[in-house]
UniProtKB/TrEMBL annotation, chain A:
Homology family: Belongs to the ABC transporter superfamily.
Keywords on record: Antibiotic resistance, ATP-binding, Nucleotide-binding, Transport
GO biological process, alphabetically ordered: response to antibiotic
Record-level Gene Ontology MF annotations: ATP binding; ATP hydrolysis activity
One cellular component (GO) term of this entry: plasma membrane
Organism for this UniProt entry: Arthrobacter terricola
Database matches in Pfam families: ABC_tran
Protein name: ABC transporter ATP-binding protein
Ranges where the ABC transporter domain occurs: 15-243
Membrane protein topology class: Peripheral membrane protein
Cleavable signal peptide: none
Cellular compartments annotated: Cell membrane
From TrEMBL, chain B:
Record-annotated membrane-spanning stretches: 34-51, 57-79, 100-127, 139-163, 175-193, 199-221, 228-247
Listed PANTHER family: NODULATION PROTEIN J
Subcellular compartments: Membrane
Protein's organism: Arthrobacter terricola
A cellular component annotation (GO) from this entry: ATP-binding cassette (ABC) transporter complex
InterPro entries registered for this protein in UniProt: ABC2_TM, ABC_2_transport, Nod_factor_ABC_transporter
Pfam families: ABC2_membrane
Chain ranges of the ABC-2 type transporter transmembrane domain: 17-192
Name recorded for this polypeptide: ABC transporter permease
Amino acid sequence: MEVARVSDAEGPLILEVQDLVARYGAQTAVDGLSFSIRRGEIFGLLGPNGAGKTTTLSVIEGLRKPDGGRVTVDGADTERSALSVKAKLGVQLQASSFQSELTIEQLARLYSGLYGLNLQRRQLRERLADAGLAQEAAKPFKKLSGGQQQRFSLMVATIHDPPILLLDEPTSGLDPQSRRQLWDRIEGSRRRGGSILLTTHSMEEAQAVCDRVAIIDRGRLQALGAPNELVAMHREDPRVLAVSRGDVTLEDVFIGLTGSAIRD
Amino acid sequence: MTETVAPPRPPIGLTLRSLVRADTTVMLRSRQALILNFILPIVILVTTNRGKLGNTGFLIGMAITYGLLSSALIGYSITVARDREAGVFQRLRVTPTPTWAIMASRLGVQLVTSLVVGIVVLVVGSIMHDTYYTPGEYLLLLAVAVLGGAVFLSIGQALVGLVKSATAINAIGRVLFILLILVGILGSTGILGDDFKNIAAWTPVGALINLFSGVLSLSTWGATETGALLVCFGYIVVFAVIGIRWFRWEPQ
């Protein structure tokens, strides 16, 4: 699953996270995190459970305010221009939930309206057909299979053709066919000029599809770069060599930098 | 006009229209809401005996109040709590939709439901009790129905503001419902004595029943009815402030 890559130097910045701090009471979930994403780039945010990935996404999505630092999307501050920023984001949450009384066609109509698109029934049907959901239009979200739910969530996230797509563990729980199909759709979004920020626990997937990745742990940045660069950079790192079982992989780098202890 | 390219900021009219359409569909699809809001108040009208509990105005007022209480307090608070817990609000909040619009749409649909409950119960009640109301009386009764809907909505809002768990809200809402009905309706009938009747007159249900009776005999409108009107507005302000101040959008 190789995709065309964008080099670091190309394109203007679409997302900038600067010294981000987010706390839950006394616990610091994100501690001075900084990274940026360029137009057309697929960027992976990697970290063990509780590393601060979802919290970081929540701040970018405007679901919570940062306790420090700043996030800008296409130059606009997420706090000061919250609604304008949200109009530029396509978001797929870790567990998408939609009103259970509505069919997916009604949901598509609702969300297209919320993004300012007054789509007619024919156009909504076309969008659903593009997502392979034409036969399911009259079903509620919960009656869809896991793969169909993911496709619908992605369709809603991209209904307004956003310049940046935020995906929180998009392939979690999907079979290989659905995963491949999802990546084809994400790649399609990038071909249209979109950028993608995603979180994943699959290092194979990150290595295959991401132009660059940031490895974070306990809310702090541990490493940032193209997957192959990170592997080359840490090939001789004793922490990485200690966990490697042959050729050093991105997973070895990840475990070497974040530790082997299981996180809840 | 069909827009296929998203604007920098969606027009608020389209946002509200989309939300109201979805919330109305959700309301119409809820079988429980249909039964609680319309069928049970009509059952009350059928089963109540005019001579024993009070006059026609009292009985119709009681039936409408019951419908309002179940739709605005139970229906609204449980739906909001369930959607919050399921993450429906999180999904809506990542769109460029102001949070006030999400809530205004839900409250607006509930208030219209209150009005429809009022109309249906009023028409059925006046036919069953063979009573004629003037257009003015109809309008006043419907105005009281909307006011009652607002009172119970604000109590429902306070409930979802103070309690987070949908299960707890479901349980507390039902206990509150029974308490308000028992105190308001039984108290208002005088069955439990005069002291209790005086206290009941100041409860949300008691005040509303007094208002329903009051607008049907405007010539006898007095301090009790004026007090009931004021206390209803008081309840709306107090509970709405509590409900908005402590409301949290996030799931637990």
